[in-house]
Amino acid sequence: MPHLSYVNVFAKDVVALSGFYQRVFGFPEIEAIRSPIFRGLDTGKSSLGFNALDAYELLHLAEFSDTRGVKFLLNIDVDSKDDVDRMVPIALEAGATLVKPPYVTYYNWYQSVLLDPEGNVFRINFMM
């Protein structure tokens, strides 16, 4: 059965952006795969990678490298509503921008919507 192993984010600064997700969520770095243009974090069920913009060329994606606008949404699940409420201020202190404060969705999740320091959208979720 196929499974998701990685989600990779193109980043202007792989060290700073991976460090943001480490500080906010405590994801440890996978040091064995570190390179000058890549950092990987262990999220427990899959991994979150950060590729430097040089990777566009390496992957033959240079013609598709228009990074304007929202291109993806990272969803990070936590264990409780209290965890959502606790982590939002941590994310803000680490450089995130609040888009939507914690709320209950129409599908009964408790979540907050934020932008990381490079403007990528992510949600902190608790599935009630």
Automatic annotation (TrEMBL):
PROSITE patterns (UniProt xref): VOC (PS51819)
Keyword Oxidoreductase set for record: yes
UniProt keyword list: Dioxygenase, Oxidoreductase
Highest taxon of the lineage: Bacteria
All copies of domain VOC, residue ranges: 3-127
InterPro entries found in the cross-reference section: Glyas_Bleomycin-R_OHBP_Dase, Glyas_Fos-R_dOase_dom, VOC_core
Gene Ontology MF terms in the entry: dioxygenase activity
Protein name, entry field: Glyoxalase/bleomycin resistance protein/dioxygenase
Source species: Variovorax paradoxus (strain S110)
Lineage: Bacteria, Pseudomonadati, Pseudomonadota, Betaproteobacteria, Burkholderiales
